[in-house]
Specification:
This protein is an alpha/beta fold. It has two domains: about 325 residues, ABC transporter type 1, transmembrane domain (ABC transporter transmembrane region fold, Up-down Bundle); about 230 residues, 3-Layer(aba) Sandwich (Rossmann fold). Helices cover about 60% and strands about 10% of the residues. It is built from 19 helices and ten strands. The strands form two sheets. A six-stranded mixed β-sheet has the order 6-7-8-3-9-10. A hairpin with a 2-residue loop joins strand 1 and strand 2. Helix 2 packs antiparallel against helix 5, helix 3 runs antiparallel to helix 11 and helix 8 runs antiparallel to helix 10. It is elongated and about 120 Å long. The two termini are about 45 Å apart.
Length: about 600
């Protein structure tokens, strides 16, 4: 009977990208609302400063600051708000009062604008932090297969640069859009109050601009998607070069790597240019269109002014407000280009977030406690339907036994032990701990039961993942692992930063620190994966001594190509093409004259 858990239910369809983007703002609703209020106040005050041009110009022309009767609706409203103050005393006093009100309005307008800007930045950085944390958290729950088929640079680009693009649209650009929309609405109301005819003329032409820009936006979105993918490729290549810097220099391949990177950089440049052609085109198109509207307003407005149906001061104010509208209209027309780039990046982020998690604990799973035995019953595993790695493996290991797993490369040794901590689930068959299927235990508790020691592991701290561990306990583990002596010779002893990938240490030193970490965790089940490969004789002796201490009183799975290190195992399992072809003690397998004997003879002859 298979213990493979039923497949998770299909994920519900994801909401549209735009809604998901706006959903990122939900935790900041109050802050966003306050920012919008500040923006509205700033926009109203901005419009008010332009309306003050009417009494200012009328006073300069020798007329009353505001007409006592008639006039435009804007003048009527202004008369109600500040009429007595603006018309008090002589023209000089009235002009002074206009200037005072103008300065106060400008001060308040810029204060509220500053508050809106600060609020927008706070929201922006909060959104990108939340999105990055959410993405990072989800990455830790994805199947290991995702990381095997996805280049590291692509994942890094999603976490760093793509989230930056998303925050631009969701917070900064969205706040700017709303601010500009408020400004446009305020100014359109003012324009209607100044001249209904001229305002209607302007609004009738506005839809034409949208029809012109829309095809550009669609093309820009496609180009932005390609650009984001290319950026990930560049990041991947740089990361690979840094990781293999020693290999590159050893093979004198600097020129080769430079040529590869130059090709990638050139391809990225072309992608940027293609996207920029459409991004840069929207601004001049909207500006030329706006200039055409201003000329049309000027022609029609002049005729109205000459026909005495429009006050010249009102016409000048109308033109000033119209010119002021050019900037927010230009920003609004550019917003779709910003959104196109952001949505392309958002799609890459949401693609990862929409991948089903493989690490979540299911209802009913309990905490594992190992006490008696581990059994593999008819276990088979496939990475892909046509890529069988293990076939019908049957194996039983009692508590306290040391089992060695050997075989040629590609036989499935590492995959076999990767099933124990549930890094993968068997395709068929089941694995039991003390007679209970592993699928009934949480992955977290299973992984506490064992420590995986990799030949190329990077150890930044012996107490990795253990908070508040006393230094004396760490040192005791290091002594048992034959690591304390060389650690104390490091520049800062136990406080020395080992460098990325532990490059300051030799292979044997890295292995001993990894063994110290395992001793500190004290797991009942231990997996040693190539623990003494590629070491010199002295290092191998020290590592083997530490391993012998580590294996005492534990159930151990040892994977090794070097058969001399596994001769004292309780029994040895020989894998070939995913199947167990032999099992027994070292002496039994040598006398059997099978695959183990051939591997043994091959190693010792060489």
């Amino acid at each position: 009977m298979s213990s493979v858990p039923p497949p998770p239910p299909p994920l519900p369809p994801a909401p549209p990208r735009s809604r998901r983007l706006l959903g990122l703002l939900r935790p900041y609703s109050l802050q966003f609302g306050a920012t919008i209020v500040a923006t509205v106040i700033s926009s109203v005050l901005d419009g008010f400063t332009f309306v003050l041009l009417i009494p200012f110009l009328r006073t300069l022309f020798g007329n009353a600051a505001l007409p006592t009767q008639g006039g435009t609706q804007v003048e009527a409203v202004l008369n109600k708000i500040a009429g007595p103050f603006l018309q008090a005393g002589s023209p000089e006093i009235a002009l002074r009062n206009v200037v005072v009100i103008l300065l106060v309005a400008l001060l308040l307008k810029n204060l509220t604008s500053y508050l809106a800007s600060v609020g927008s930045v706070a929201i922006q950085e909060g959104v990108v932090r939340d999105l990055r944390v959410r993405l990072f958290d989800h990455l830790q729950t994805l199947p290991l297969g995702y990381f095997q088929r996805t280049r590291a640079g692509q994942t890094i680009a999603r976490v760093i640069s793509d989230t930056d693009q998303v925050k631009t649209a969701v917070s900064a650009a969205l706040a700017s859009l709303l601010q500009n929309i408020v400004v446009i609405l305020v100014y359109v109301v003012i324009l209607f109050g100044l001249s209904v005819k001229l305002t209607l003329l302007s609004l009738l032409l506005a839809p034409v601009l949208l029809l012109i820009i829309r095809p550009m936006i669609n093309r820009l979105r496609r180009r932005s998607r390609e650009l984001a993918a290319e950026r990930g490729e560049v990041t991947s290549h740089v990361g690979e070069m840094i990781a293999s810097a020693k290999l590159v220099r050893a093979y004198v391949a600097e020129a080769f790597e430079l040529a590869r990177f130059s090709e990638l950089a050139e391809r990225y440049r072309k992608r940027v240019l293609r996207a920029q052609r459409y991004s840069s085109l929207t601004s001049p198109v909207s500006e030329v269109f706006g200039g055409f509207m201003i000329v049309l307003i000027l022609v029609v407005g002049t005729r109205l002014a000459l026909g005495a149906t429009l006050d010249p001061a009102v016409l000048i104010t109308f033109l000033a407000v119209s010119l002021r509208l050019m900037s927010p209209i230009k920003s609004v027309s550019n917003y779709p280009t910003v959104m196109a780039s952001a949505v392309a990046s958002a799609e890459r982020v949401f693609e990862v977030l929409d991948l089903p998690s493989a690490e979540g604990d299911r209802p009913g799973e309990t905490t594992a406690e190992f006490s008696e035995r581990i059994e593999f019953r008819g276990v088979s595993f496939e990475y892909e339907p046509s890529e069988s790695v293990l076939r019908d493996v049957d194996l039983e290991v009692q508590r306290g036994q040391v089992v060695a797993i050997v075989g040629p490369s590609g036989a499935g040794k590492t995959t076999l032990v990767d099933l124990l901590p549930r890094f993968y689930e068997p395709t068929r068959g089941e694995i039991l701990m003390d007679g209970v299927p592993l699928t009934t235990y949480t992955r977290r508790s299973l992984r506490r039961q064992e420590t995986v020691l990799l030949n190329d592991s990077v150890v930044a701290n012996i107490a990795y993942g253990l908070k508040g561990m006393p230094l004396e306990q760490v040192r005791a583990a290091a002594r048992a692992a034959n690591a304390d002596e060389f650690i104390m010779r490091l520049p800062e002893g136990y406080r020395t930063v080992l460098g990325e990938r532990g490059t300051r240490l030799s292979g044997g030193q890295r292995q001993r620190i990894a063994i110290a970490r395992a001793l500190l965790r004290d797991p009942p089940i231990l997996i040693l994966d190539e623990a003494t490969s590629a070491l010199d004789t002295e290092s191998e002796r020290l590592v083997q001594e530490a391993i012998d201490r580590l294996m005492a009183h534990r159930t151990v799975f040892v994977i090794a190509h070097r058969l001399a290190t596994v001769q004292h195992a309780d029994f040895i399992v020989v894998l070939a093409e995913g199947r167990i072809v032999e099992r027994g003690t070292h002496a039994d397998l040598l006398s059997a004259d099978g695959l183990y004997r051939r591997l043994y003879n091959l190693q010792f002859r060489s």
